[in-house]
Amino acid sequence: MGSFLLHESVFFLSGLPFIYLERAGLLSKYKIQTKNNSPTAQEKCIIRLILYHFSVNLPLMIVSYPVFRFMGMKSSLPLPSWKVVLSQIIFYFILEDFVFYWGHRILHTKWLYKHVHSVHHEYATPFGLTSEYAHPAEILFLGFATIVGPAITGPHLITLWLWMVLRVLETVEAHCGYHFPWSLSNFLPLYGGADFHDYHHRLLYTKSGNYSSTFVHMDWIFGTDKGYRKLKALKNKGDSKQT
Question: Which residues contact 182 (CB under 8 A, 6 or more apart)?
Fold first, then answer.
């Protein structure tokens, strides 16, 4: 229950402000797409999220807790050293990105996209909360990428909660629809961010690419970011001509 309450708090507190920004038209110069979602579409997203979180996420957390305990997860003192926490968090991000990439590509096959993943793509103009708007089957399928790292390492509960917080903040940022001067992708070369993932939502499933969750190296290695890189090159060329 603690994990569920922490997740809900971080998710909605970080995601709801982007609905306000879109409705109020604030910081619009940093918005990636000019199109806005209607209040009805935003409210539909919130209602579905609450339903899915209580009917899918919460039972999954309850069922997975004994597994984490069996694999060695602790919740008592002493707390792990910062070196252990940092190494585990880095490992979780790398492993999650790898598993998510392949799972995401599978979801973009014709049948699975039509019957499962198309729910997530109902929002071609994503906003923060759409990061977890998905078919229940997809929540379970791609949720595996998030929990597999902690499940096999048996971390301290504090490490697990830190990982959950960082993962939620990352996926909300990737779907926020804004690319700010302070966005992490401006400072971390391998980090995808909102601009990278927003491209994925704008295109048809057969041509989307940019399947990774956090980083860009998997798409670069397997050539699934060529359309995005070509578009960026054309945009940069056009910007340089204007200056």
Answer: none
Displacement of CA 235 from its chain's centroid (Å): 25
Nearest to 151 by CA among 76, 104, 96: 96
Task: Name the CA radius of gyration of the chain, rounded.
Answer: 18
Q: Cα–Cα distance between 89 and 166 in angstroms, integer? A: 9
Nearest to 105 by CA among 97, 195, 163: 97
Q: Which two tokens stand for residue 158?
A: 């504090």
Instruction: Report whether the peptide linkage leading into residue 78 is cis, meaning its omega lies within 30 degrees of zero.
Output: yes
The residues, any chain, with a CB within 8 Å of residue 21's CB and separated by 6 or more, are 27, 178
Domain count, the chain: 1
- pLDDT tens for the chain, 243 residues long, are 899 999 999 999 999 999 999 999 999 999 999 999 999 999 999 999 999 999 999 999 999 888 889 989 999 999 999 999 999 999 999 999 999 999 999 999 999 999 999 999 999 999 999 999 999 999 999 999 999 999 999 999 999 999 999 999 999 999 999 999 999 999 999 999 999 999 999 886 666 899 999 999 999 999 999 999 998 888 877 665 665
CB atoms within 10 A of CB 11: 23
Enter the tokens of residue 164.
């959950």
- CA distances in angstroms from 91 to 84, 97, 163, 207, 211, listed in the order given: 11, 10, 10, 30, 19
Range of the domain at 11: 1-240
- SS3 of 238, please? helix
